[in-house]
Amino acid sequence: MPRAFRIAVVLITALLILGPVGLVVYQSFLSGPFFQPNSTLTTQAYEFVLFEEEDFRDAFLNSAIIAVGMTAIAVPLGCMMAFLLVRTDLPGKRFIEPLVLVPMFVSSVVLAFGFVVALGPVGIVSLWVKGLTGSIPWYLYSKTSLILIAGLTHVPHVFLYASSALRSLGSDVEEAARSAGAGPLRVALTVSLPMIMPSILYATVLVFFLGFELFGLPLVLGDPERILVLATYLYKLTNKLGTPSYDLMAVVVVSIIFVTLPLVYTQRKLLAAASRYVAVKGKASAQRPLAIGAWRWPALGLIVAWLGVTVVIPVTALVLRSFLASWGEGVGIWENLTTAHFRELMEYPNLVRGIVNTLLIATVGGALSVSFYALVNLALHRWRSRWTAVLDYLVLVPRAMPGLIAGLAMFWLFLFTPILQPFRQTLFSLWLAYTLVWLAYGMRLVSASLLQIGPELEEAGRVSGARPAQVSRDITLPLIKAGLIGSWVLIFVTFVREYSTGVYLLSPGTEVIGSLLVSLWGTGAVDLVTALSTVNLALILVGLGLMFALGNKRHA
Amino acid sequence: MPKLVIEDLHLRYGSVEVLKGIDARFEEGSVVCLLGRSGSGKTTLLRSIAGLEEPSHGSIRIDGRPVFDARTKVNLPPERRDLGFVFQSYALWPHRTVSENVAYGLRLRGESKTGIGTKVQAALEGVGLGALGERYPSQLSGGQQQRVAIARALVYEPPVILLDEPLSNLDAKLREEARIWIRALIKRLGITAVFVTHDQSEALAIADQIVLLDGGRLIQSGTPEELYERPATLFASEFMGTNNTLNVGVVERQGGRARVTLGQHPLWGTDRTEGGAAREDAKGVIRIEAVRLVDGAGENRIPVEYETSIYLGNQFEHLFRCGDQSLRLLSHQRVGPGTHWVECPPDRLWVF
C-alpha cells in the first residue's frame, strides 16, 4: 500500500468516526437545535440534565445498579460453566458448548419479547404454572427480574473469554498440581482460574460496560414499571417534552460516552495484559479432562437449567406465540394454531420492506462493510507509523457508543451536512451507521486473519519484484480470503440482529426488522411483533448454519 | 570490479544500534557467508541488502549502482533491486502451486506465457523437482520446500541471490547434502550468493569468502582457510573450530613468536598481538586437533593428568588437566589414568 493511500484511508476513517461524535459534542453546548441559526453557545443543557433532571439521575443510578448486579451474576456463572465445559468430563459437553453462545446471536429485544410472552403476567409459562399452583411465584417487570435476566443473558460473554483462555492453558499445569496432591476443586480454584485471571477481569469489565449500554431488555421489561436506564431515558426523551430537545439529548449522549469511554479504554489495556499472560502459559499439549465424579450430574443440571431459562423458554414461547391466533387466560394452544400473523405481516408494505432491507443490509451491506474493514486493516498493515496508533485509539470511540447513540449521531450528521442530506432516507445512511457501530468488532475480525500471515510471505513478494499494491492483491488478500468470508458471515448475523442503531434512522425506505420491532412494540401489536421476531430468528438461524458449514469458530 | 560493495553501514532499531559500521566487498561469482552468533547483525545486514530494512547511514552498491545511499537519499524498494531472496522459513505462498510460486517473479517481469512455462520447468528441474509443479507447498517435505524457495529466487536470473539460513530447518543429514548441491548450483550459474549462517562448519563448507560478524561489527573477512588458520582476533579464533583456550603468562615476545608459561611449564607460541608488551594474563588458543599425544618430555611438551575420555566412533576425545586448566585433544589411541605428555606445536598455539 502506498503511503499516500494509507494516510487517505486513515483520514477518511477518522472523519467517519469524529464527524458524528463532534457534532453531538457541539450540539450539547448549544441552546437550541444545531440547524437553527439563533442557537448560541451555552452550558445550560448540562446544568439542566445533570443537576435538575431527576429522571436522568434515576436512570443513571438504575444503569449502575443493573450493571453491577448483572456482572455479579454473569461472571461467576460464566467462569464456572467455562471450567465445567472445557476442563472436566461433563457428559454431553460437545452438544452443550455451541448452545451456550446462542444468546449472543439473538437480538436482546427479541429475547425480551420472548421473556414477556413466556413469563409475563399472562405469559404462556406463567399461566401454565398458575394453573398448577394457583398463583405466579414471580413478577417479570421488577428491577430484580431485569437484573437477573440481564445477568443470565450475558453469561456467554464471560464464557467465551474464560473458555478460550482455559483452552490455551496446557493441562500440564493442572497435572503438576494434581501430582502435588491437590483435588479437582482445589486445582480449579488455585491453579486454573487464577491463571486465566486477566481474561476473567477483561470479561468482567466488558459485562459491566454492556450493562451501561443495555437498551432492548430495559425497554421491554422496564417499561410497565417505568424503570428507566440511560439508553431508554434517551429514547423516551424524544417524546417527553413534546418537541425533540436536541440539546438535552446531546448532553445525555455525551454523559453516556463519558462513562463508557474509560471502560472501553480499560478493556483495551486488560486485553493486552491478558495476551501477555497467555505467553507464560503451560505447554498446550493434549488436554486431559479432569474427572469430577458424582458432581457431574448437579453440574449438568445447572447448565441445562440456565439454558432452559435463558434460551429455550423465551425462544420457544416467542415462536409458539407467533403461531397462535390470540393468547390469554383460558385459551387453548392446539385449537388456536394459525399462520395468519405471517400473512398479515405481508400486507404491511413497510414490514415487507423491513425484511427486504434487513436482508440487503446484512448480505450486500455486510460484504461492503467487511471490504471497508479489510481496506482500513490493509492500510494499517505492517506500517510502522504514528498514524496506526492514532487510528487504534480512534476505533475505541465508536466502540464506546451504543448503537442507539451512534444511530442518533449519524441521523444528525445526515441532517447537518448538505451533501449528505439526499442520502438520509436511503439505506446508505443506515449502512454507514451500522458500519461505524461495528467498526471495532469488524476490524478485529479482519485483523485476526491478517495477523496469521507471516511477514516473510509478503517480503518474498517484494523481493520477487512486486510493488506494495501488487503484494496486497496477489498475496495478502488471497491468503485472508477464508477469513474474510468468515467475517462476512459473522457480520451478517450481527447486522440481522442489530435493532438499536436503526431506531432514529427509521423512515420510509430505511426500515429494518430491528428498528421496526422497537417501534411496533410501542404500539402493542404483539401478534405482528412475535411474527416479525420469528422471521428475525429464522434469518439468524440461516447465518448460524452458514457459520457452522464454514467451520468458523471465531466469535466476538 | 566487486559485485556488491557495502560502505560504513549503520542501522538502528529505536535506540539499539544493530549494525555499527560495516564495510565489505563481495566479488562477482563468489559465495559469501555472513557468519556470526544470533544477534550479531548478520540477518539484518542481509535484509538491508535486500531493501527489507532501512539503514540509517552508509551505502550499498550493486554493480556500481547505488541501491542505498544515506547521503544522496537513495533507497530503492526491494522490488527494484532485482535480487533473489531465500527466507529461513522459505515463505512459500501456500495458496499457490509450486509452479505458480516460481512463476510469480517472471509474471511481474512481463514474461510471455510460453517463456514462463519453459523457465519455470527449467528452474524446477535445476533443483530436482521437475515433476512436482502442480503440488501445493503444504504437500511437500521440508527439503523439497527449500528447493522450491531456491528455484523461486533463481528463476528470473538475478545477479545476486541472498539466502537467510536456508538450511537451518533441515535435519542434519539433509543439511550436509544440501550444502553440496547448493554450492554446485550457484557455481554452475556463476552468480554471486550471500548466505547467512550461524554454523561455522556450514560456512567453511559452502563459502569462497567468510565475513565474520559480532555485535554489529565486522570482525574478519577472508577465505575459509584464512579464517580457520589465521584468525585475526581471539574472538575469531574461538568462534571457528573446537578449541582449547588457556590462561597463559607471557614471558617475552620476539619476531612473531611469544614465550609463555602454562602453569610453570614454558611453551613457545605464535604471537598474534602484533608486538604487544609482556603480559601476565594472555590467552593461548590451540585447536583440539593440533594438540598431539607424545611418549615423553621434549620441546614444547607439557605433562598432563588424565581426566576422562569420550568415544567418538572414528577416534577418541581425551580430557586432561594441567594445573587448574583443562586440555582436550583428539587421538586414535585409548589412554588410561595417570600422567601423560602432550605437544603443542608453536605455529598452532596462538597467543593473544
Notable traits:
heterodimer; A: mainly alpha; globular; B: 352 residues; alpha+beta; 6-stranded mixed sheet; 5-stranded antiparallel sheet; 8 helices; elongated
What fraction of residues of chain B sit in β-strands? 35-45%
What's the β-strand tally of chain B?
21
Radius of gyration of chain B over all CA atoms, rounded: 24 Å
Shape of chain B: elongated
Number of helices of chain B: 8
H/E series of chain A, N to C?
A: HHHHHHHHHHHHHHHHHHHHHHHHHHHH
Oligomer: heterodimer
Largest sheet of chain B: 6 strands, mixed
What's the average pLDDT of chain A? 88
Instruction: Count up the helices of chain A.
Output: 28
Distance N terminus to C terminus of chain B? 35 Å
- What sort of overall outline of chain A do the alpha carbons produce when their principal axes are compared? globular
The succession of helices and strands of chain B, N to C, reads EEEHEEEEHHHEHEHEEHHEEEEEEEEEE
Strand order of the largest sheet of chain B: 7-8-9-3-10-11
Low-confidence stretches of chain A: 279-284
Query: What can be said about the biggest beta sheet of chain A?
Result: none
